[in-house]
Specification:
The structure is a single chain. By secondary structure, the chain is of the alpha+beta class. The protein has 8 helices and 7 strands; from the N terminus they run E-E-H-E-E-E-E-E-H-H-H-H-H-H-H. It has a 5-stranded mixed beta sheet, covered by helices on one side. The chain has a two-stranded antiparallel sheet with strand order 6-7. The protein starts with 18 loop residues before the first strand and ends with a helix. Its cofactor is [3Fe-4S] cluster; [2Fe-2S] cluster; [4Fe-4S] cluster. It is an enzyme of class 1 (oxidoreductase).
C-alpha cells in the first residue's frame, strides 16, 4: 500500500490580517517606583503570533526598560512564566488567536508577574526560594552499595510509574498558582513535590525514605489543600495534584 503525505492545511488570509491589541502590563522598577502600577501599550499583532512576540515588540520598539525572562521560546525552558489574564501560563505557548475578543471589539490582555515570589522588576521575579525548595527534596538518583557493572535495568512498567512527573520544566507555574504558597512561602510547593515524586517512585532509586521524611514536615505535602490550581496551571499537562496525593499515600501506608 502506497502512503501519500497529506499537504499541510493552508492558513487563511485572516490569520495574517494585522490587528492591534492592548497589553496592560503590571510594571515595577524598584529604583523609581514604590508600588507596582499598570501601563498599557497598543501593539500590532497577527492571529498566529505568540504573546511572547508582542512582549518583544514592547521592549524593542516602545520601552527598552521593560523586563521579563525568556530563553528557548518553545515551551521547554520555562523561563517566561507569567500571569496572562489572571492565569499562569508560558508566554511562548499562548497564541493570540486564543486571546482575541470574539465580538470583534478591541482586545486587552492583562499581564502580571507570577504570585508568591518577590517581584524584582516588572515580570521578573526572585526564583531563589523556589529553587531552594527544589534542591531540598534531593532531586537526583540516590543509591547505596557498589556501583553495578552495567546500566541499571528498568522495565517499561516501572518507568511508566513516574513518567508523568519527569516532564516538569521548573517554570513555577504550578507553585505560584497555589493559594497555600501565596500565604506561606515556607511551603515546599507543588513543583518540589512533583520532582520528589519523580525519584520516590523510580525503581532504581534508594532514597525514597529520605525524601518522604522531608515531605512529612509541617511545611511539606500535608499543606496541600487539593484545589487543583497547580494541575490547571501546568503548561506540560502534568497531573500535579494526583502526584501529590500519591506521595501522601506513600507516607500513610509506607509503601512506594
Amino acid at each position: 500500500m502506497t502512503s501519500v503525505a497529506e499537504a499541510p492545511a493552508a492558513s487563511s488570509d485572516s490569520d495574517h490580517t494585522p490587528i492591534t491589541v492592548t497589553l496592560k502590563i503590571l510594571r515595577f522598577n524598584p529604583e523609581v517606583d514604590t508600588e507596582p502600577h499598570w501601563e498599557s501599550y497598543d501593539v500590532p499583532a497577527q492571529r498566529t503570533d505568540r504573546l511572547l512576540n508582542l512582549l518583544f515588540y514592547v521592549k524593542d520598539y516602545i520601552d527598552g526598560t521593560f523586563s521579563f525572562r525568556r530563553s528557548c521560546a518553545h515551551g521547554v525552558c520555562g523561563s517566561d512564566a507569567m500571569q496572562i489574564n489572571g492565569i499562569n501560563r508560558l508566554a511562548c505557548k499562548v497564541l493570540m488567536k486564543d486571546l482575541l475578543s470574539k465580538d470583534g471589539k478591541q482586545t486587552t490582555i492583562t499581564i502580571a508577574p507570577i504570585k508568591g515570589l518577590t517581584t524584582l522588576k516588572d515580570l521578573y521575579v526572585d526564583m531563589d526560594p523556589f529553587f531552594e525548595a527544589y534542591r531540598a527534596i534531593k532531586p537526583y538518583l540516590i543509591t547505596y552499595g557498589n556501583e553495578p557493572t552495567r546500566e541499571r535495568i528498568q522495565s517499561q512498567a516501572d518507568r511508566d510509574r513516574f513518567d508523568d512527573t519527569t516532564k516538569c520544566i521548573l517554570c513555577a507555574c504550578c507553585t505560584s498558582s497555589c493559594p497555600v504558597y501565596w500565604n506561606d512561602g515556607s511551603y515546599f510547593g507543588p513543583a518540589a513535590i512533583v520532582n520528589a515524586h519523580r525519584f520516590i517512585f523510580d525503581s532504581r532509586d534508594e532514597g525514597a525514605e529520605e525524601r518522604l521524611d522531608i515531605l512529612n514536615d509541617g511545611e511539606g505535602v500535608w499543606r496541600c489543600r487539593t484545589t487543583f490550581n497547580c494541575t490547571d496551571a501546568c503548561p506540560r499537562g502534568i497531573q500535579v495534584t494526583k502526584a501529590i496525593q500519591e506521595v501522601k499515600r506513600a507516607l500513610l501506608f509506607k509503601r512506594v
